[in-house]
Amino acid sequence: MARSFCVRLDCGACGKPVESEQLHNLSPCCGKPLLARYDLDAAREQVTGTDLSSLFSPVDSLWRYRALLPKVDDANVTSLGEGRTPLLSGRTTAERVGLENIWLKDEGQNPTGTFKARGMSLAVSRARQLGALSLSVPTAGNAGGALAAYAARARLAATVAMPKDAPEANKAEVRAHGAELIEVDGLINDCGALLKERAQTTGAFDVSTLKEPYRLEGKKTMGYELWEHLSGRLPDVIVYPTGGGTGLIGMWKAFDELEALGLIGPERPRMMAVQAEGCAPIVQAFHAGASSAEPWVGAKTMAGGLRVPQAIGDFLILEAVRKSAGGAVAVSDHAIVQAQGAVARDEGLLVAPEAAATLAGLERLIADGKVAHDEETVLFVTGSGLKHLV
Length: 390
Ligand SMILES: Cc1ncc(COP(=O)(O)O)c(C=O)c1O
Ligand SMILES: [Zn+2]
Prior knowledge:
This protein has 390 residues and is α/β, with parallel strands linked by helices. The chain has helices at residues 40-44, 91-97, 116-129, 142-154, 168-176, 188-202, 214-229, 246-260, 281-288, 314-323, 333-347, 353-367; strands at residues 6-11, 17-18, 34-38, 87-89, 102-106, 134-138, 157-163, 180-184, 205-206, 237-241, 270-276, 327-331, 377-381. The chain folds into 3 domains: 6-76; 87-114 and 214-388, Rossmann fold, CATH 3.40.50.1100; 116-206, Rossmann fold, CATH 3.40.50. The strands form 3 sheets. It has a 6-stranded mixed β-sheet, with helices on both faces. Helix 8 (246-260) links the parallel strand 10 (237-241) and strand 11. Helix 3 crosses helix 7 and helix 4 runs parallel beside helix 5 (168-176). Zinc ion binds at residues 11, 13-14, 16, 27, 29-30.
């Protein structure tokens, strides 16, 4: 087994440590997300100057960062080549909106067409390592497709619950991979409640985002990749479409780890959370100065991944946004559709509505004077538009 510097899990709320070599959902102390912790002093000793070859492996997937991921035996690594997605220049978009430099991190090139592949590769690998036989996930659609694919590859059983109005492509991919699909007349939180009830008889392990610790570890690799693509720097601004917020929290964690490894200083990108006007609990909490969000009532948006009325990691999202001197902004479905068309025409990228929301959000932030023309900005294009054509 390749070396991992992972040593334990900590409660994300109170910091109390938990032994990591057994299956866990939320922390037993506070019922909050668990965070994987590493012996970064020992890892730092592997780094000589800017030569990372002894820390990062030459594998062309996110498993390149295996030393900074949880322990998984080779036989349990479940990979479809996820991660290592391109950072594309958004030159035409930058000219149009009046910024000097925009990058598009094209997560649509992941297996299953979205960044959900990153988290599921880690969650499924770890669940397999720790002996789970059956997994379940509530989803807006994309996480369900990713779980179905990775569970198939790991030869594990999977159950996916998604709102019945989720994209047909998501339902089709779940069925194609042989997972059980439950369509729910409700939102992602209703799907979660249903699966929790069923787990009492099925014993399926719940891999809901942030309700197990490893999807976060998969998504944090987006932060490492940004740093590598930009030759050891980070951008000024990151714009991220926020539902459960796993990617935003994960990147924030990755930056702290890079600093502990001596690879960056204390400066951080300003983290901008974009939500839909029809479901914006984090934006509301940010403007209210609150440290956690109130559940959003009557959530409605065409960007299904942003239709998350209550995020278990709300306090972690808000902390990252505030500590980074970032912001939170809500955009209309109309602005999302406009942005989707603009990226397709200007950049040759067919993007998911959630991904297009980042451009709509950036335009708002520029108009409000929150992002200046000389700030290097990365938009997270979290998914392909190919699942949304019909
Ligand atoms: C394409 C896409 N973008 C963004 C999100 C939101 O992701 P997160 O839970 O990391 O906030 C989702 C979640 O379903 C998604 O499918
Ligand atoms: Zn705790």
